[in-house]
Write a structure and sequence with these properties.
Elements (H helix, E strand, L loop, with lengths): L2 H17 L3 E3 L14 H6 L8 E5 L7 E4 L1 H6 L9 E3 L3 E5 L4 E6 L11 E6 L25 H19 L1
Parallel strand pairs: 1-2
Antiparallel strand pairs: 2-5, 3-4, 3-6, 6-7
Helix pairs in contact: 1-4
Length: 168
């Protein structure tokens, strides 16, 4: 493989890494569970989730699920009042955030929402806030698809090298 081809492959790889949004595991190491009394309200308020980020729900599908619901269903914890907008039950659900505003999720297993297994992910416009960007530690610690600041810098260097190689 020629020098130019290697740099183009490197450039494309680095650009793909830089363009991905952050990945957050709901509940951090505890995941999506009724055990341990995870404070999902506090978890959500401590994150700066923006459009393009992904939230991951990890749980045992024998005991839990994830339902995207309306505000009313979120407040009442009564799925029978309104059908869920979406239902997930794989135990490892990745949901890409594609819009601003509130995204409401509950567990549809009877009693779980009332026990606190629900979350309101409020996605605000980046320009509307002055809060700091989450650190790498805040993001999903077990996710392998996040770029480190070093790798992002390396991508920019690769881009510059590719242009120099193409110009030669």
């Amino acid at each position: 493989m020629s020098f130019v081809q290697r740099n183009v492959v490197l450039l494309v790889t680095m650009m793909m890494m830089m363009c991905e949004g952050a990945v957050y595991k709901v509940g951090d190491s505890a995941g999506w569970t009724t055990l341990g009394k995870v404070d999902y309200k506090n978890w959500a308020s401590s994150k700066n989730i923006i459009v393009g980020d992904t939230i991951i729900f990890e749980y045992n599908p024998q005991y839990h699920n994830v339902m995207r619901v309306t505000n009313e269903t979120y407040k009442s914890c009564n799925v029978s009042e309104g059908t869920p907008l979406e239902t997930f039950n794989s135990g490892n659900d990745s949901i890409k955030i594609n819009s601003y505003g509130h995204h409401y999720f509950i567990c549809g297993i009877p009693g779980h929402c009332q026990e606190g297994l629900k979350i309101d992910v409020n996605v605000i416009r980046v320009s509307a806030t002055k809060t700091p960007t989450p650190s790498m530690d805040d993001k999903c610690p077990n996710c392998s698809n996040k770029a480190s600041p070093f790798m992002a810098s390396f991508g920019l260097i690769g881009l510059a090298m590719s242009f120099l190689a193409l110009a030669a």
